[in-house]
Design a protein that fits this description.
The chain is mainly beta. The chain contains one helix and nine strands, in the order E-E-E-E-E-E-E-H-E-E. The protein has one helix at 128-131, and strands spanning 12-21, 32-43, 45-55, 58-68, 74-90, 93-105, 112-124, 157-164, 168-170. Strands 1, 2, 3, 4, 5, 6, 7, 8 and 9 form a nine-stranded mixed beta sheet that branches. The protein is globular, with a radius of gyration of 21 Å. The relative contact order is 0.13.
């Protein structure tokens, strides 16, 4: 028999209550402030009973759970919902969005990020002509594609539907 069969599985029980917390800013995203959360632990799972906060002054709600599979593999399913939050804030550009996204990993496959992002109320403050002296070339649109090569995100799958109608004002 392996050593694994002699080591008991970890068992957790109880609640973790978080109040008045904040994250650090992440890249161009503002910090999440006023975090209030209750996470319930039972056996080998954790359930997010309540997780709320504010992002750019707008409410954010997270729900979900995490667990260890029978082979001790960490699995999770977490969802985030927010309305009209600033997802990009830098000098000359603010982009706001409604978010309904889920991050899940239920087996040995890499995590998957899925859901919807509805762009809205963006503002671009820059003189575009000053950036490009002379004529402005217009290129045929290509298929939108990008890749993330930083670990641990390089293997994640992305299934986001990004929509928006007249979401950016240019001044």
């Amino acid at each position: 028999k392996s050593l694994r069969s002699y080591v008991p599985s970890p068992v957790l029980a109880g609640d973790l209550i978080l109040t008045n917390l904040a994250t650090r800013p992440l890249a161009t995203l503002s910090p999440i402030r006023d975090i209030q959360a209750r996470i319930h632990f039972e056996q080998q799972s954790a359930i997010i009973d309540r997780f709320t906060g504010t992002l750019s002054g707008r409410p954010v709600v997270v729900r979900g759970r995490g667990w260890l599979t029978p082979d001790q593999f960490p699995a999770f399913a977490i969802g985030l919902q927010a309305t009209n939050v600033a997802i990009l804030r830098q000098p000359g550009l603010i982009l706001r969005s409604d978010l309904d996204v889920q991050l899940a990993r239920t087996n040995a496959a890499p995590p998957a990020l899925a859901g919807g992002v509805r762009l809205r109320d963006g503002l671009f403050l820059m003189d575009i002509a000053a950036l490009m002296p002379g004529k402005v070339a217009v290129h045929a649109p290509a298929d939108a594609a990008f890749s993330i090569t930083n670990e641990p995100f390089a293997d994640w799958t992305l299934h986001l539907q990004v929509t928006g109608d007249e979401f950016l004002r240019v001044r």
